[in-house]
Amino acid sequence: MNIGVLKSTANQMVAKGKGILAADESSKTIQKRFDKIGLKSDPDTNLAYRKMLFTTPGIENYISGIILFDETFRQSIEGVLIPEYLSRKGILPGIKVDKGVVDLPRTNLVRGLPGSQGEKITEGLDGLKERLKEYAKLGAKFAKWRAVITIGKNLPTDNCIEANSEVLAKYALLCQEQDIVPIVEPEVLMDGDNTLEICRNATNRTLHSLFAKLAENSVILEGLILKTNMVISGKKCPVQASSQEVARETIATFLNVIPKEVPGIVFLSGGQTPNQATENLAEINRIARSPWQLSYSYGRALQDEALRAWGGKNENVEKAQKAFIERARKVSEARSQLPSQN
Q1: DSSP states along 221-251
Q2: In the structure, what pLDDT confidence band is assigned to residue 59 with cuts at 50, 70 and 90?
Q3: What's residue 116's pLDDT?
Q4: What mean pLDDT is predicted for residues 183-199?
């Protein structure tokens, strides 16, 4: 483990004015995206879409790194493997290494905590060490692992939070042993009808558990990036919090639980519209006086407008790239807001 390399990479990932593009959609997920434009997913079509994004002129001014799916990681653009292609543009190549979510067993085998039906645990630790070694040889500088925390009646349970935190910590340590910076992503979902306060409570519990497990596993905090949700109202909540309320509650929660050694926090968009994700990020940076860089790792919020403009047609590539670079510029400006002096 080279702590200097880990620190350097982590700081590059949250360089000022830049953020991370999440382009790591699985085959199932990218088909859901393509359903919006009536397109069938296959390796060639997936590559054409990613190529449209990655070859956009000037994205290196706003994008520090791109998270890739295994299929994409092994494909080429202009005869160059995509990790190398991105590196030549000054963009760090990253890789999604989790294997997706499955139902969480009703009992946590570690401590016997009761669980609840419908909660999830992320798989992928089996064989991860060898996969990370291969990805490192292929040029991966960072990796990502997503855990899913659901809000509902009596949810999330301590069982779900603790089990996912333990897995995230084990993944993070395996990454750092290969000089790969881990993005640890506990996502408290915003799909329900919960209030802002309920989201804050669930996020606070999740982050407390995560950092306790990271400490237990001797993970180097200076060599990781936290990717997490904003504290936000559930999509179905009849009262939606303003961007100012989202910003205040998010920062208050973070200051209560996230160690200052963490170099940066990148937000997921979590189903927000591109405009919502951009506005909320701007407000967070506008009010924040924090020890971390507060950046973005958006998927849909960076891609949706470009996807619709592209529509799977070669003649639309230039139009789609204009939409993509415009949104990237707006999100970069949002994370570059200076804190208010009030």
Answers
A1: GGG-EEEE------TT-SSPPPHHHHHHHHH
A2: very high
A3: 62
A4: 94
Catalytic annotation, residues: 185, 227
CB atoms within 10 A of CB 243: 18
Instruction: Specify the pTM.
Output: 0.94
Other C-beta atoms within 10 Å of 197: how many? 12
Is the CB of residue 160 less than 8 Å from the CB of residue 116? yes
pLDDT of residue 114: 57
Phi-psi domain of 9 (left: phi exceeds 0; alpha: psi -120 through 50; beta: other) = alpha
> What confidence tens digit (pLDDT) does each residue in 320-334 have?
999 999 999 999 999
- In one-letter notation, the amino acid at residue 192 is G
CA dist list (Å): 222 to 82, 302, 309: 27, 27, 39
pLDDT band at 289 (very low <50, low <70, confident <90, very high): confident
Q: What is the CATH number of domain 3-335?
A: 3.20.20.70
Contacts of 258 (CB under 8 A, 6+ apart): 207, 211, 226, 265, 292
In this structure, are residues 339 and 286 in contact, taking their beta carbons and an 8 Å threshold? yes
Phi and psi at residue 34, in whole multiples of 5°?
-70, -25
Distance of alpha carbon 132 from alpha carbon 331, whole angstroms: 31
Q: What is the rounded average pLDDT of the residues 46-67?
A: 98
Span 285-314, mean pLDDT?
Answer: 94
Q: Is 187 helix (H, G, I), strand (E, B) or coil?
A: strand
Indicate the helix (H) or strand (E) that contains 298. Answer: strand 293-298
**Would strands 120-122 and 101-103 be described as parallel, antiparallel, or unpaired?**
antiparallel
70-269-261-249 Cα dihedral, nearest 10 degrees? -160
CA distance 152 to 50: 35
Q: What is the pLDDT of residue 308?
A: 96
Radius of gyration of the chain (CA): 19
Q: What is the DSSP string of 67-85?
A: EE-HHHHT-EETTEEHHHH
DSSP readout, 245-273? HHHHHHHHHHHHHS-TT--EEEE--TT--
